[in-house]
Write a structure and sequence with these properties.
- With 430 residues, the protein is mainly beta.
- The chain is 3% helix and 49% strand.
- The chain has one helix and 35 strands.
- The strands form seven sheets. Strands 7, 8, 9, 10, 11, 12, 13 and 14 form an eight-stranded antiparallel sheet that branches.
- Strand 15 (211-214) and strand 16 (217-222) form a beta hairpin.
- It starts with a helix and ends with a strand.
- Mean pLDDT is 87; it is low at 1-18 and 226-230.
Amino acid sequence: MRISRLAALVVSVVTIAGCGWSQQGYDAGSSGYNPAETVIGPNNVGSLAARWTRPRDGRNDFGQLLVRGQRLFSTYNNGMAAFDIKNGRIAWKLVVPRPDATGYRALKPIALVTDPVRGIDLLVASQIDYHTSQSPTPGISGRLFAVDAATGAPVWSVPSGAVVSGVVDAGRLYAVSYEVVGQSIVYDGTLALDVFSGALAFRIPEFRDSVVAGDGRVFGTTTISSLGVPNKVVGSVSSAGCGALDCPVEWTASVGPSNASGDIAISGDRLYVAGAPGIGSFPIAGCGASDCRPDWVAPGRYWHISVGDGRIYATGTLPGGHPNRGLVAFDASGCGAAQCGPVWSSAENVELKKPVIANGVVYAATVSPVSSTDLTAVFAWPTAGCGAATCATAWSTAVLNPDWTSVIVADGNLYVGSLLVLARYSPVTA
């Protein structure tokens, strides 16, 4: 019996939400929160130990990690590969040739999604082609494509620009794309495609930096604002499109008079926007006006946020010249006032990447080396804090080279990928 496409979409969404770590921010809302994790928790995170490590053997990094079942997917040697989670050995790999004599290519996983019509899991990814000034056609271009996650065999491919952000929601792939032609940047905006075929449904020209989706809406960073200045704010468009190829922004969410150039995240019926003014909390359905202001704000400068276990975990800096650049935790429901302070913050004064939340633990990797050595640290804290305003880590480890460090947690394992090494950790104690 043939399964209808509508049924396929429903099954696909359930699969994405329930297995492994299938998107860069875990889900289409980029919450960074894995509610399915039950093995690693506050009681045993301190016993995490490396089960295997794999050094780089090519130019590209181990980054953009995804995992499902017995396979871990990552960028690899100017291409992409699937690794056996038991031992780190390569199950299959895609290595692409240079676009020309002086340029190079990179493949990046975006999401894993089940296609019940074909009866396979798809790995959706992007290819970026870098053409240097010595190339006959200097610039940047790319494509979006999907392969069979079990074998790496191609399924579909469509041309695009370089994809800087992408999520999958309800059978749609939303990808922020741009091209460089000579010295000129050409913004494609956000492309909305059928994730099973690559067919273009519509575009959102104003979404140029990042994109998330949820509850029938798509949100992206845009420069449209009723503030009268070229502010970066978050815009909203229906996921059903607008009946035309190019869809305009329907309403915007403005945190304040400065740029909202940080992460966007969705949790439940709330939209959280980070940036220089702080973190703003908005109803995902909007406010009934063309430009919405937050119900409450956590002042500061925050670039990365994740939401889970009833809290927002942000990396950045508290207001008032506070010296701490580490992790800051806020109550996700606010504090009953227009401005809310943190519940706790980390003792480590380091710049951190987007947090990852799972089973009562929050993890984050450093952006820069923690000392004069070329080492990145990955830290872990209990989500509940420590009963004080400032909390020390429950666990940490050093990772060779600071660039492109990616961290995900799923099925009792912590995976860490960086420019030079890929590793799996699991707890020694249950």
